[in-house]
Fold these 3 entries.
Entry 1:
Amino acid sequence: MIEEYFREKIQKVDAFLYEQIKQKDAPDELTESMLYSVEAGGKRLRPILLLATMEAFGQNAERGLPIACAVEMIHTYSLIHDDLPAMDDDDLRRGKPTNHKVFGEAMAVLAGDALLTLSFELVAGIEDRHVSSQMKSDLVARLARSAGAEGMVGGQSADLRAEGRTLSPEELENIHLHKTGKLLSFPVEAGALLAGAAPGQIDLLNQFSRHLGLAFQIRDDILDVEGDTRRMGKSAGSDENKQKSTYPQLLTMEGAKQKLAYHLCEAKQCLHQLDINYRRLDEIADYIVQRNR
Ligand code: GRG
């Protein structure tokens, strides 16, 4: 069952994240602030995608834990900064008061910065005889590109500038391919690279994760309208309040649901062309489009 699979992986990811943060010789309050958001209970989709990709190639997923956790640290930093008054100004995240509500804005900025930088330290410090120095620096560069100006941060800045304006569906897709998509694609690609996948396989997996990222975002937009604040652990209705363009708003709710089904179908078609054990990736794709939080 996928729930059991998630539980097992989350336990490993959580233990690794805690250990990496706790062992830093950092001021107590900074450590507390980093751990507060990391331990607040995210779904751990990005690390699980990496671990499941490695397993699809018959690899031991434990080898992927450092990079899986590096991606989760970047994701958590992005949520801490996204919630700040200068960005989305949110009070609730992962079912708890946002980081700046508890530790103050300055400490929240620093906790995000520390998680971002620790993620690169983790990847650069991988000790694995199958991972050469060249591969490590390649992975660091790919992670930086996914998270930075050409990736998530670039998407976030385009999203900020788009507030209050009605976007075309193409403009909206482009924002989400960067803001959300790049950091969801990276773990699939990194897992495949660690597993020694062939270029053709990586190409198909990249197409799979591109569709999956769009499906993830459409589901997120739908949940923002239909979801329940308590179950999601973040405020429902926030897109409308911030005058953000969303899929239900541009395509109608029915149109958004059709587009969600389309991207799931395309993602699966890419996956099913691969001669690997893709069962868990397939189940994760289903989970992403059906999730309630
Ligand atoms: C550099 C100042 C500065 C800020 C960066 C890049 C950025 C701020 C924010 C991006 C935030 C972001 C990635 C939002 C959209 C993605 C999204 C829907 C996140 C929620 O992801 P889930 O559902 O969350 O995987 P959990 O809590 O389960 O991990």
Entry 2:
Amino acid sequence: MTKMKEVGSMGLKMNEKDLRYKVYEGTEGERAIDISSLRKDTGCIAFDSGFVNTGVCSSNITFIDGEKGILRYRGYDVADLAKNCEFIEVVYLLIHGSLPTEGQKARYSNLLNSHSLIHEDMKEFFSHYPDHSHPMAILSAMVVSLSSFYPEMGENYKEDVDMKVTRLISKLRTIAAFSYKKSIGHPTIYPKHDLSYCENFLNMMFSSPVKEASYNDVMVSALNKLLIIHADHEQNCSASVVRSVGSAGANLYASISSGICALWGPLHGGANQQVIEMLEEIERDGGDVDKVIERAKDKNDPFRLMGFGHRVYKSYDPRATIAKKLCMEVIESTNNIDPLLDIAMKLEEKALEDPYFVDRGLYPNVDFYTGLTYREMGIPTDMFTVMFAIGRLPGWIAQWMELKDDPHGRIARPRQIYTGPTFRKVEPISKRN
Ligand code: CMC
């Protein structure tokens, strides 16, 4: 594992004391000041709401340059991976650090197949959720339940790591499809060994005892690429939740389940569902995109343009470029013109020429076009964030494994500045106002 390199130090003068802090550099030239002794030296903590400027780990997995719009997994550009690999090759890359050979890929596919079923007792759980339960709620609960069915994951995770990891990757896809079938009250469809990872998912979603699933090769290829562009994104909200939970010693399933809950939030992965709901509202309202742009700019209105803006990217999100192209390809393959695509493109065009968005570096993010693509495949809106979770799973696992392998890893425990009441004594209840 490549470590950060010490490249110098930085001075700070405080209370007449000259303090020096080490400066480290990563392989792409990003620098960090090691302030781990700041409180001991100065009595102050670093205050950084939302972790805008705080690095919590060094990592060998994913590199992002938000200014230049670069995203690489283990050194490979995301567009290169999406063009030349299937999702399971990228899963292998994230977990093992290198792309698989043909033999390794074949073995990995076999492992994925052998773990695709879920315990029949777990299937029972689905029937006890109320109709129309959000599939993200079911997904996170099912994943944490896997800890009860496979408790050996808690200890020495390195033993049979491929078996443990593929089990989760394979089962998440089955759980996702089962949760959809539950939400529409249809019987579940089992995975098949003769189908690829993505085809299996589409088959479990769309076939039924009375009819074969209808999907085309363009959709299978687009799904592979969509999962690839979601596969990791370094220390985003859900990955840092997975790491935080894992740092307390929680098992893989519990950590991933927490990540799924974080992803559900509308400012994170839940934005893909919100984008379609926003476009549908614009359509109902007669297609007036200017009105929505004005609302997004109004500081007295909490509304935000969903699928726009990003903490790290201050240029076009490279994933959005790929997602937009995939969206066009899938629409062309179905010959089914979606009026929401037209609205989305108008909205993008208007926002990108508006000084509010230009000055703040707000561009379409990954969620802006993915929902339209899923919609075209027949995937319902409340499954969009589940699709994000299936894609992000290998990244969460890789982050969790890296955390476990870090000999200097410590429990995540941020500090705070307390602003509540100072010391006071409890009044007897009869004397309280
Ligand atoms: N619409 C309108 N204004 C926005 C938007 C937006 N979508 N995003 C940011 N801004 C404004 C914000 O009001 C602020 O303005 P000002 O400087 O005048 O106060 C400025 O841009 C900076 O925003 P911020 O909230 O400080 O930025 P952040 O890095 O904390 O938040 C974000 C990033 C993604 C949460 C935010 O851009 C947002 O809410 N976007 C909409 C939700 C969305 O699409 N989320 C998906 C993110 S990509 C997928 C993923 O990683 O999960």
Entry 3:
Amino acid sequence: MPLSTALDRYAVLGNPVAHSRSPYIHQRFALQTGQQLVYERLLCPLDGFAHTVQQFAQAGGRGCNVTVPFKFEAPALAQRCTPRALLAGAANVLVLDGSDWLADNSDGEGLVNDIQQGAGVALAGRAVLLVGAGGAAAGVLGPLLEQRPARVRVCNRSPDKANTLVLRHAAWAAQHGVELAACSLQAAAQQGPFSVVINATASSLQGGASPVAPAVLGAGSLAVDLMYGSAAAPWLAWAQAHGAHARDGLGMLVEQAAAAFALWRGVRPATAPVLQALRQDIAAGH
Ligand code: NDP
């Protein structure tokens, strides 16, 4: 654990965590908004998430981002959860409120902002395919439904997980007038084309282009992979080859970070300049 400092401390906790771009993003948000803070990476032992969070609070920690594989553990550790973290059953943000942790999930807000403002695609009335049923998919489904797309299909390699995720969100979908159902990866192709296809799986990490067939795409569909950097290249090439607008997950990463920063510091940073700087940084091989 690094030495304590008089400045408020924030960190991203994960395992692995060395690759995380969160320190870069939050340091730029702090500069831009004139906030004095320290942001670092903390590698948690796989069986030591709660202990690391506790130690971090004792050393002046005020808030954390939570990444793989601890997103499902974070709500249990917190004394309170926001409604969207409860719905997801997963959290990517913790904030210390007095001596209590509050757990939130800003992944969905980040994705929705990136799709609607970054890519300029309104979700209302659209057909949306969410591929994946892990932590990221759990975080984004509720906020996607809030935008009132006409229908959402969730498909996953392990179909039971897609079913569970859909059941968990059934009431939320009904409340927002969305037709929500689960299907297999294969069946998704028969139910296309979709206006927006979101790859929330880790398939790109394993070098795969797409877990679903090209029939899910129509001319001009938006195809988003939550992955970014060189790992997203096969998905981007696959989507473009089939006539879709392809987008990686870097915009979502910056947007979900801005939501966390606003929760911690009470000020909302501008995302566009930070996204642009981050893209340049990655393109330069840093
Ligand atoms: P999880 O480990 O919780 O879930 C992984 C998901 O990927 C599961 O649905 C799993 O299916 C599926 N999967 C893994 N390998 C394959 C494959 N070869 N073919 C098809 N499906 C596969 O991970 P997360 O949900 O936390 O993260 C998913 C991705 O989203 C990661 O790449 C992560 O980096 C990215 N992400 C990006 C964010 C951003 O801000 N841009 C934020 C959060 C995540 P099964 O259930 O069958 O195992």
